[in-house]
Automatic annotation (TrEMBL):
EC number: 6.3.5.-
Catalytic function, reaction form: L-glutamyl-tRNA(Gln) + L-glutamine + ATP + H2O = L-glutaminyl-tRNA(Gln) + L-glutamate + ADP + phosphate + H(+); L-aspartyl-tRNA(Asn) + L-glutamine + ATP + H2O = L-asparaginyl-tRNA(Asn) + L-glutamate + ADP + phosphate + 2 H(+)
Role: Allows the formation of correctly charged Asn-tRNA(Asn) or Gln-tRNA(Gln) through the transamidation of misacylated Asp-tRNA(Asn) or Glu-tRNA(Gln) in organisms which lack either or both of asparaginyl-tRNA or glutaminyl-tRNA synthetases. The reaction takes place in the presence of glutamine and ATP through an activated phospho-Asp-tRNA(Asn) or phospho-Glu-tRNA(Gln).
TM regions (residue ranges): none
Protein name (record): Aspartyl/glutamyl-tRNA(Asn/Gln) amidotransferase subunit C
One Pfam family of this chain: GatC
Any one GO MF annotation of this record: glutaminyl-tRNA synthase (glutamine-hydrolyzing) activity
Length: 101
């Protein structure tokens, strides 16, 4: 199934890609190969294959979900480069003061 140039342009637009004519000519055959591979995969009989979340045969090692004590303000701020009493002190990002119009 070969894609037309218009098909490739539509796919690029859907993916929010701006492609030149040269890029469209180059990517068209690549997309056709990818779709051909996906079509081959759809021919596989997967009726007896159990769904899985990973290709590896591993189990997650979850720790027990238990509430623990958090940091105190002093512990949290001990390595802060600047602080103002019990708060982090950071340089202004959006200006020094908000103005009303």
């Amino acid at each position: 199934m070969a894609l037309s140039t218009d098909d490739v342009r539509r796919l690029a637009r859907l993916a929010r890609l701006e492609l030149s004519d040269e890029e469209i000519d180059a990517i068209g055959p690549q997309i056709t190969k990818i779709l051909g591979f996906v079509e081959q995969l759809s021919e596989l009989d997967t009726d007896d294959v159990e769904p899985m979340t990973t290709a590896l045969d591993v189990d997650n090692r979850w720790r027990p979900d238990q509430p623990l004590a958090g940091l105190t303000n002093d512990e949290a701020l001990q390595n802060a480069p600047a602080r103002d009493e019990d708060c982090f002190l950071v340089p202004p990002v959006l200006g020094t003061a908000a103005t009303k119009h």
